[in-house]
Design a protein that fits this description.
The chain is of the alpha/beta class and about 180 residues long. It has a single domain, classed as Metallo-dependent phosphatases (Purple Acid Phosphatase, chain A, domain 2, 4-Layer Sandwich). About 20% of the residues lie in helices and about 35% in strands. It has three helices and eleven strands; from the N terminus they run βαβαβββαββββββ. The strands form two sheets. It has a six-stranded mixed β-sheet with strand order 3-2-1-9-10-11. Strands 4-5-6-8-7 form a five-stranded mixed β-sheet, covered by helices on one side. The longest helix has 12 residues.
Amino acid sequence: MTGKKLLVFSDSHGSVNALKTVFNWAKERLPPDDTICAAACCGDGLSDLQKAARETGFYSDWKLVCGNNDYGYQTPDVIIFDFADRCFFMCHGHRFGIYGDHQALLTAAKTSEADVALFGHTHVPFYQNIDGILLVNPGSVSRPRSRIGATFSVIECIEDEPPIVRFYGIGINEVIREVEI
């Protein structure tokens, strides 16, 4: 059984080409052939997103937040949205002290009654269920700070089951493959 999928990415920092690679991959996974139904950008790449979407023809139900390097956008720092009968809390992460621990982010997500909290900023992919809230950082599509390299994620939501989080790496020659974190 397949559910609805949410493409999650962050921190492109000027690399339109990295986003174009992700968007071209994602275009092959749109309905009716697959189920990527929306895309979430956790910040630091809003200007890249517009260019990459236009150049690839990848358009989606966009979920967007501003990062600490997204200047001049009227996009909020935090959004709460519903996707596939789940509540998502999304931020870039820089205002939540995520380098020390995830407590401030977790508290904000709990206050919002979120099932999932999405964030970026660290450039390191992360996935953990803490106190019943799934925390997901897709890493960075262009400036990774982990041994895995450039990454993004896809969250699949199947009715009455916990969300399934998959991470994908962008390798040499723009080859995308599923990776373990």
